[in-house]
Specification:
This protein has 10 helices and 13 strands. The chain is of the alpha/beta class and about 350 residues long. The strands form 2 sheets. Strands 1-13-6-5-4-2-3 form a 7-stranded parallel beta sheet, sandwiched between helices. Strands 7, 8, 9, 10, 11 and 12 form a 6-stranded parallel beta sheet that branches. Strand 4, helix 4 and strand 5 form a beta-alpha-beta unit.
């Protein structure tokens, strides 16, 4: 089956406050849109994928006066997801956002079962259980990101800031999105080593996947082992597992150890703040989840819902990056990151989406 690929450019609406308020009120009055979300593994406050998606929904709710609701499944099987999707539809929610690849097979069924409901799936597209059929109907939009590009920027920035030391990576499940973060991160570090004289090492023992996105204690144990081996920075692309990494780094930094974490998906700087007001989050590899959920809701309200399309967000349309404000990075580092980002946008720097064993 030939898949339709469309590049989506995300633009922030600019205008007077009065114009923005008028638009929101007008949309709210003419719309019967009710937005639901089913969470993926973890909780709504996972400081990552679920939370980032939900924050965009909440912002749309505030701007457009919408009724919104999320449901947390009992498990992470196709049946669990289908049950909560059905519960939202039965309750009158007609626009459902599904964050994560685990929804792919559930949505393959739901798009036919609920033809009058609009769906958005983040980081995946509908297919059957054995991957033999990929099919996206007119009531579904699929969104992907170039995680390798934001991983590259975060790795490059961290290498420039620290100049030397050992870096590690902790992933959740070994799935394409998480792998791309890892591969891009390694490429960014290698680019800094090759072109800016940094001396960052990444040993294979400090590059691993925990196997889930919700085991906080396992994340903390893994981080403790890495920091004990002399790792200075851990890039945690692991949802709740990453929360455990952040907790361990905060504990160690509070006792005077110089350790760091690189956040993922959203700007995790606030999650790393310690009692002294400083944060152990060096920077974050972002994919602007809140913008995607917000923009898809806004598109539906404006009559421009990209029905049946697969959207790809990357550096060329400002769909990925690191936070605009990085308190733990110097201006000279952020200036160099901006230059590299411009080269990525122009195509001068190309980051591979696949790879393995970049560091041995």
């Amino acid at each position: 089956m030939k898949k339709l690929t469309v590049v989506l450019c995300i633009f922030l609406l600019l205008g007077t406050v009065a114009f923005a308020q008028g638009s929101a009120e007008g949309a709210a009055k003419k719309s019967n849109l009710r937005v639901g979300m089913v969470t993926d593994a973890g909780t709504i406050d996972d400081k990552s994928f679920n939370q980032g998606t939900w924050e965009g929904i909440l912002r749309a709710s505030k701007d457009y006066g919408l009724d919104v609701k999320y449901l947390k499944p009992a498990g992470t099987t196709e049946a669990d997801y289908l049950k909560e999707i059905g519960n939202l539809v039965d309750a009158g929610y007609n626009f459902v956002i599904c964050p994560g690849f685990k929804f792919e097979t559930a949505l393959f069924e739901a798009q036919d079962k609920y033809p009058n409901v609009k769906f958005v799936i983040l980081d995946g597209e509908p297919h059957n259980a054995d991957y033999s059929i990929f099919r996206i109907e007119k009531n579904v939009v699929a969104v992907y990101w170039a995680e390798h590009e934001s991983g590259f920027l975060a790795g490059f920035a961290a290498a420039l800031q620290l100049k030397e030391g050992d870096f590690g990576f902790v992933g959740g499940m070994e799935i394409p999105a998480v792998q791309k973060f890892n591969w891009g991160f390694q490429q960014g570090v290698k680019y800094a080593n090759a072109n800016f004289g940094t001396k960052i090492a990444m040993k294979q023992e400090n590059n691993l996947y925990q196997g889930s996105f919700d085991n906080v204690s396992a994340g903390q144990q893994i981080a403790a082992s890495m920091y004990d081996r002399g790792v200075d920075v851990i890039f945690a692309a692991a949802g709740g597992v990453g929360v455990g990494v952040i907790n361990e780094a905060k504990n160690r930094a509070s006792s005077g150890q110089n350790v760091w974490v690189i956040g993922v998906d959203v700007d995790q700087y606030p999650e790393g703040v310690m009692p002294n007001g400083k944060s152990i989050i060096l920077t974050s590899a972002m994919k602007y989840l809140d913008r995607a959920s917000y923009d898809m809701i806004e598109a539906e309200l404006n009559g421009t819902y990209p029905a049946g399309q697969i959207l790809h967000l990357d550096a060329t349309n400002d769909g990925v990056g690191i936070p605009v404000t990085n308190p733990n990075l110097t201006k000279s580092v952020t200036d160099e990151v901006a230059k590299v980002y411009a080269k990525m946008k122009s195509g001068e720097i190309k980051v591979a989406a696949v790879g393995d064993g970049l560091f041995k």
